[in-house]
Amino acid sequence: MKLLLASQGFLTKEIASEVETVVGKNLNEINIAIVNESYLELDRDKDKRWVIKELSCLEKYIGGRIDFIDFKRLPKDEISKRIEQADLIYFVGGKQNVLARIIREYDLKDIIDKMIKSKVIMGTSAGSIIWGKQIESETYFKERYNKNVKDIVDRDYGIVDFNIIPHYLRKGREKWNQEFLSRTLKDEKFPIYAINDNQMISYVDGKIHFIGGEPVVFGKKY
Asked: Total structural domains in the chain?
């Protein structure tokens, strides 16, 4: 299993270099398939210019073919073919829980399971969170999103025993700081890595490597 769990994608040469290493190809030769359903369901009053910035970084670094996979529109055999042709499957962030719901509603679990075994997966923000264990803290969701845990369905795909908090201390998110996360995540039974937009967690065959410096760890640290 090869997962690259980022906050905001190809923002540094170090992140790009790790992608090259894990994929096993030069960046100029890497073919990428982008899954972008998550941000399409964000509230209409949210500015989406970050999507343009993130995708422009992909175009800057990736020299191979860039494709898009629409999980809702394409038939399953076409989704499988597009995944097979790509070296890197890239899940863009956005609204949490969307991807897990789509996988269930469109009966894509068999395709996703095969993809996990055979391809390098890279996610950003919500596109990374889906692959980790689900945070269960009522306090965290109530204070962070004004939601109850029981109201959140299709919350994760859960293939690794940790998760991330993306965009740590980004401008405008300073109140979700170390004190808040320490308090609200103290009872979680697995590590939760808070990463900034220049960091990434590389998980290759059970081994974790931190890109861009050590993250701040919450929940169960060891």
From this structure: 1
